[in-house]
Amino acid sequence: MDAVTDLKRPREEDDNAAAAKPACFSSVIPGWFSEMSPMWPGEAHSLKVEKVLFQGKSDYQDVIVFQSATYGKVLVLDGVIQLTERDECAYQEMITHLPLCSIPNPKKVLVIGGGDGGVLREVARHPSVEHIDMCEIDKMVVDVSKQFFPNVAIGFEDPRVNLVIGDGVAFLKNAAQGSYDAVIVDSSDPIGPAKELFEKPFFQSVARALRPGGVVCTQAESLWLHMDIIEDIVSNCRDIFKGSVNYAWTSVPTYPRHWGYWIYALSSKSNGPLKFYNSEIHSAAFCLPSFATKVIESKAT
Amino acid sequence: MDAVTDLKRPREEDDNAAAAKPACFSSVIPGWFSEMSPMWPGEAHSLKVEKVLFQGKSDYQDVIVFQSATYGKVLVLDGVIQLTERDECAYQEMITHLPLCSIPNPKKVLVIGGGDGGVLREVARHPSVEHIDMCEIDKMVVDVSKQFFPNVAIGFEDPRVNLVIGDGVAFLKNAAQGSYDAVIVDSSDPIGPAKELFEKPFFQSVARALRPGGVVCTQAESLWLHMDIIEDIVSNCRDIFKGSVNYAWTSVPTYPRHWGYWIYALSSKSNGPLKFYNSEIHSAAFCLPSFATKVIESKAT
């Protein structure tokens, strides 16, 4: 299926398009987008909408792009904000450079998810990298990003990138053993299409595909809201990865209460002219509030 | 005026109380509280309301307390969340221990604002402290906190505390020169009653009241949203304080996009069994994203 053929811009004169507006636009402040999810019950974050630029339904999820009043263009999957032009640097730079600056001269990198291309843009800053595989399940995300977020999708233009549209779980199972220096899992939440990316068998596949001393970094939810999920992931990873397992955090204003990442194996190195990431904030990202340290350290074997 | 006499619990059977609900409850998701402000245009954060526990109007501001679905009890001043039971530890611990752990043996501390008592609770953990003056402009905030947030207002019970209900700007002007080891400014936003606490004359008064080598820490808004305000404050403070001026941040989920603090003079020391603060996160709080470092360093003289 070529998802590009499904791309439709809602025309303002089209009554049907207006009537078909998803619940996230109508159940809340009129003219605003509100993000609500069972992942963060009892709270919502809302952005004022200037114009809906795209609405589509892929084989996997609802895809929306809108122009916000104060955060630039916004990409929404299944009602959840994935990136805004204003703050995407915080997420993309941190999830990429935390792992890649933790090992010397990464050469072969695998990105699971990340269909907007932002992680690719950041991986491409590393001159040691020779080959980047990306496995994204939803081609519509790639197409929409190329159309509406050229400064993010620029990552796809790097000649080292090999884009595969498919299931990341299956891709990893078939990957050659010990073939990657780094795996970056840029997934959505553990409900919906990304669910398996938070489960033990997936991490076992990652461990198999990594070379000894390789590093994995994955989106690992918020320490304010999802300590139970984080506890399970850390526990699984301590079983599977024989090096260190750490939880790190960053500040992404439009994500619900900070998302975090964790990482296996690290050192320290700075890189390039970036907006957000630097070597100091690399180290700072691993300094956790005491309530989180207590839970995460309790999983140390 | 004794604000306690104004305390009214809205009775559910009282139609007038329902009709008098402030705009933040009615203009948004029915049954939810939404925080909107010209300080963060185009975005809103909403919490599901279980029950409104208190609504009052003091001489200075609207005061609301509600039971939220997932963040415990919430204190709201002029439509802006000041604290929730779930995450107040992050704010109170950081704004207090960042400055007090930066100087050896603080003895005399002044808190401007902070009428909920949480900063007092944290200051009281420091055994070297002999005397704590607090100047809060709004007695209703103190009374409401004592009634609904006993674990926060516990700070008022410390015998070293001298509570003054009055204007912090005037209080500081009359303070003896060089009399405080530390001043903590726990204010609301620079619109409304706290406006003057962000202006140069106020910081000049703070500098006068501090002993040489003393430290000030103040709420200094979000580096994602208010870089212009932060730039002004840093610039003013570099003029006034002859030691170091730093900007630090922390994560408070229910504050719009992280608030930050800055601080004058620092070292490093850990303290007590806390939920959030530790010596590592003390240092990490001063590691800023590159875009913020660029602006703040440009003010270095």
UniProtKB/TrEMBL annotation, chains A, B:
Tell me if Transferase is a UniProt keyword of this record: yes
- Residues of the PABS domain: 30-269
Q: Which GO terms describe its molecular function?
A: spermidine synthase activity
The record, for SUPFAM superfamilies, names: S-adenosyl-L-methionine-dependent methyltransferases
* GO terms for cellular component: cytosol
Q: Where is the active site?
A: 186
- InterPro entries reported for this sequence: PABS (IPR030374), PABS_CS (IPR030373), SAM-dependent_MTases_sf (IPR029063), Spermi_synthase (IPR001045), Spermidine_synt_N (IPR035246), Spermidine_synt_N_sf (IPR037163)
What keywords are annotated for this sequence in UniProt? Polyamine biosynthesis, Transferase
One of the protein's GO biological processes: spermidine biosynthetic process
Gene3D superfamilies registered for this protein in UniProt: Spermidine synthase, tetramerisation domain, Vaccinia Virus protein VP39
The UniProt similarity line reads:
Belongs to the spermidine/spermine synthase family.
In terms of HAMAP family, this protein maps to:
Spermidine_synth (MF_00198)
Q: What is this protein identified as?
A: BnaA07g09800D protein
Question: What is the originating organism of this protein?
Answer: Brassica napus
